[in-house]
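Lecture notes, unit on protein representations.

Consider one protein chain, 242 amino acids long.
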Amino acid sequence: MIISSKYRYLFIELPLTASTAIAKELTENYAGQTRHYKHATYRTFLKSATDEEKSYFTFIGIRNPLDQAVSHYYKYLNDHKGKYSNPQPRRSGRVKYWLNERGHQKRYRFIHEQKADFAQFFLKFYTRPYLDWSLMDQERMDSVIRFEHIQEDFQATLEAIGIEAVRPLPIVNQTRSKEKTFWEYYDSLELRVRAARVFGPYLEQWDYALPAEWDVQPEVKAWESRFQRDLKLKKMYWSILT
């Protein structure tokens, strides 16, 4: 995470939301400093924050999870920065990292051993309502930078803080090329129904929507009760690990 005492802001770095680019820009041009570790949660911040720091303007990056799933697939397929063939242990957040790494390795091996395409990968591993720790303290965020219109949201966030932008946000750490737009990967009714069930409740939490032409809106609520149950359990899990 990135914090600035000069401008009184806190940036929460959620994975796969261009957080690397935003963090780099904040530290280079807007008096940002690293606090804890890259993907530390807001709960981790609260444990050591002063009362003044707890009042800072807080923002997070968010990305449509359907896009994120495609990005995950290509990161595993291309062994992004060698992190799956040669994983490096972290000094901080090690228990959480180890638990996550087991899942990464399972997915990486499946794609390469089975020569799996995106559809096979998605149907194999996306079998429960989608959750991430952005939901743990969603109501505490003062601003959201959506990956889909990152430049506009980054500019608006700076303005809300009271900072004049020095330049457009440079994009770094991109996943190697996808072959088409992320919507096009969900090219069968089976994939679309699964996506609606897995992602539907999360999409509603962050005001996203599925394409109307998919005609799967009833499926969005199909796993709502499972989502709420899993979210309660996950919040307990995240709280313990942070």
